């Protein structure tokens, strides 16, 4: 019995370490070669699959648009945890790193639609690993909070232009479907418009 507990504990530690950057820093993933930001940063993307996170982590929609010469990202997220559920709205300004293909950083403010949650400021590093611009994108995401607390999260996402899409031919995407434990197919995501 002690062996089973020890092996389980080791597996949990290994998983946690494998899913975090070195020393609490974002991983330096290789971005997509010849990335066309003009084609990627338009319209709406839906998060359909994630490697980790809560079940409702996939209930997100991102809209990219130009505002006063600045690229802006607006995101709507539905969160269900235990018996509570709420929406959050992210407003982010994008600063593309011109020297690295497919890499961009965002400074964001999150507003919740429930009174008991305070607004949050955070920084996001994203790297587009692969995309065909019209259907799917595979993205590495790393978040750090800006509230003085050391909070760090990273994930691998599959985005689609059509939220009903699945990872139909994962060999084309270069991923294994079983690695993406969170899927929009496994949860009911509620919809709400931006306030």
Automatic annotation (TrEMBL):
Its main location: secreted. Keywords: Hemostasis impairing toxin, Secreted, Signal, Toxin. InterPro entries: Calycin, Triabi/Procalin. GO terms for cellular component: cytoplasm; extracellular region. GO terms for biological process: lipid metabolic process; response to reactive oxygen species; symbiont-mediated perturbation of host defenses. Residues 1-18 form the signal peptide. It comes from the Eukaryota. It is found in: Secreted. SUPFAM superfamilies: Lipocalins. Pfam families: Triabin. GO terms for molecular function: toxin activity. PANTHER family: APOLIPOPROTEIN D, LIPOCALIN_CYTOSOLIC FATTY-ACID BINDING DOMAIN-CONTAINING PROTEIN. Belongs to the calycin superfamily. Triabin family. This is Salivary lipocalin. It comes from Triatoma dimidiata.
